[in-house]
Amino acid sequence: MKDSIDSLTADILASECVSARHFADRAEALWRDGQIEIRGLRTELEKAKTRSKMKDRKISELERQIANLKKIVFGAKADRNPNKDQLQKGDGPSDQSAPGHTPNSATPNSGNDLHGHRQTPRRLAPRNRNGRGKREFPKHLERFEIYMGTPDKKCPCGCGGSIRGYDINETLEMVPARYYVAVRKYPKYRCRAADKVVGTPFIPRIFPQTTMSNGFLANVIFMRFGAQLPWYRQEGLLKASGIDLNRSTLMTWSNRIAIQALLPLYELLMRELLHNSARLFMDETTIPMLAPGKGQTITSHLIAIHRDDRSFGGNLPPIVAYVPSKTRAMYKIHQLLSGCNAIVQTDAYAGYGQLGREGTDVEGIVNPKCWAHTRRYFTDEYKRNKTEDARIVIELIAELYAEELKIRGKPPFVRKAHRQKYSAPVLARLKAFLDECSGRHLTKGGMAKAINYAQKLWPDLVLFVDDGRIDLDTNPVERMFKPSILLRKNALFMGSDEGAEAWGILSSIVETCKLNGVNVELYLNWVLDQIATKLPRSEYDKLLPWNAPQELLVGR
């Protein structure tokens, strides 16, 4: 455009007789061209501003995702109130203190309940809440008195003074694990009556052809699935004691015990879960599995089905069963729950989307959704952007959890009545607030996504009001993944389909023992002894963890 103006100026200076009209037309044309160019530049500027805003939103979203991933990897897993100084009302923790899910919420005593099922014993805490007081050690531990004075029990200065009392100091001690070889001598007798040599029957072992006892094999399994110690570390511990056992040998024994000996117990656990439960929790996590012949891993899944009725005063024994699977698709979930008639609490994963739908094989299921997952969207938004509306929603959800604390362990009819009186009004306020603020946030922003999530799931989120058996969240089953996640971190991957099956079987039995207050290692030793004696399959229900002898309980 500047070149055109300069050209016009030069023509004016050079001309003597050109009409003024000619210059006016040229000036008007130049002005029009200038306006068109300005409008084009403005359009480009607006487009650039729009692109910049979109990039800013994308950067903000990516930063939020990075913060969430850092929290998952490095941070605490609980979704407590993000601004606890401002939010003074009770909130529902997602760790082991979650309302309605404490191990001893059903009964005040640590023994058997009214129906004979044992409850997990309460842990003894320090005298002071800060942990600095005198610690009370469990009463079942042996006490050995050690005299620390002079041999003649007289004053050490030689004056002859006698003992007038003792200062008592208790310390927790341990005897390191000690391996030994049991040399059993089975006599062979000369029977005069039968005129032959009669031998003594060997004690039964789960695998008679091995040189390892049932107790040793029980310890190997406990260390792997109860203490999350991978095979190579167990191999190292054995080597430190001068015992050369390859990790592949330990793995082979473990897999054989799971698949050849303990599979019927696992099937009984699954049958009990799916056909004799009023309420279940269900969730899944990923565990890498080694792809055969490729030298790399593929993503496999571990599905957990969990029963724990203690939050509503139920007396059925708690159970957790893990199902390894190469997929978590809807057909797999329907396959597992086919014919089940129960409440199944889950998150909002799409694979659970058809649970309870008429005409399917899972139509007998009621599928409440999880308030902890809903709250997480708002806590993430508040932590990221300090959005005031998110803070208000978190406060209202905290009120729901505060009401749950008051009815933890109560019967379903009590919980239902309390919720209808106190929780329903809170839900009404929360729903009205979500509807009110849904239009004042960016469509693709974190707050809008949180609101849309809650509104979409609202009918399933409020089912708990009219059924006292339903809990607010799925935190109980999420806690059941902690051992497997720790083992996944230590072991890195599952080695094969057989290893995955063994992982599911052994983890299910070990964690169910813990839920019922049973000493895992003693229980495994006892079960292997019972199976080795050729106990009929029809009597395997006697071997389930909650039917174990009293002497196998923790603290006995």
Automatic annotation (TrEMBL):
Domain of life (superkingdom): Bacteria
Region of interest called Disordered, as start-end residue ranges on this chain: 73-138
Compositional bias (Basic residues) at which positions?
117-132
One Pfam family from the record? LZ_Tnp_IS66
Q: Which InterPro entries match?
A: IS66_C (IPR039552), Transposase-related (IPR052344), Transposase_IS66_central (IPR004291), Transposase_TnpC_homeodom (IPR024463), Znf_dom_IS66 (IPR024474)
Composition bias of kind Basic and acidic residues appears in 77-88
- Domain named Transposase TnpC homeodomain: residues: 61-146
**Domain named Transposase IS66 central: residues:** 211-501
* Composition skew (Polar residues), residue ranges: 94-112
Task: Write the protein's name.
Answer: IS66 family transposase
Q: Which organism is it from?
A: Phaeobacter gallaeciensis
